[in-house]
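TOPIC: backbone geometry
CONTENTS: sequence, structure tokens:
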Amino acid sequence: MTRLFHASDLHFGLEDPAALAWFGDCVRTERPDAVLITGDLTMRARTREFAAACDWIETLDVPVTVEVGNHDLPYFNPIARFFYPYRRIRRIARLVRREIDLPGLAIVPLKTTARAQWRLDWSKGWVTGKALAHTLAAIDALPRDAMVLVTAHHPLVEAGTRGRALTRGGERALAALAGRGVAAVLSGHVHDAFDLSKNTVQGPIRMIGAGTLSQRIRSTPPSFNELRIADGELSVRVRNLAAVPTADMQIADIPPDAMPPRQPGEPVARVHAVPPVDPPAH
């Protein structure tokens, strides 16, 4: 059996210390085969927030892969955002979008964040052609009998909504991944857990979301997913300090507006639109 811990939306700067300490204890005592963190390490991509996030991640003494979320791109410094957006995360650069190979299982990243977009809300996802091609090439290089899990920050589609794309290019990407036989796409961003199946033109594919380990909760308490793979089957348990059953922790649909409630005293992000820069593919 292979066991993975899937966490997301740590939001250092508005983190939940008790939830983070509990997760760290679970990793140390239970020794999962890997930890998958699907983005939003920080609240506002400040230097001190990244320093705290890196300190915490470096205590996880198991293989780790990290996605970059929309909150991890500089908010208040447009020069940094466009020219060196990942400089503050360089301490753990080796873990960012890291592919992990385990016996019979591969973890492959998919980039969904963008420095700019042709729409006002840059917090939403965007799967560029380059990013998708990079992920598909990595999948195509794997043994045919390997189970593949893809990690991304944004859910690629909303399960029960139409007309307001949470992630541009998400439908195309999800169909391409279904055509490659990907077992599931793991993501975060919405701060609630989910486990849904989506039909695409290439067949069905599973979408699994982790909740948050921060104070920015939406409708469920802080949590993480424990994934177990045995005999070719993938099961999900949503673990949380409140001991809420998994079925009650998982939301039925991915909301079109994925923003959790703003906390008292939390600043409103204001990002000025400029012509977009094509983000790196990986």
In short: The chain has one domain: 2-249.
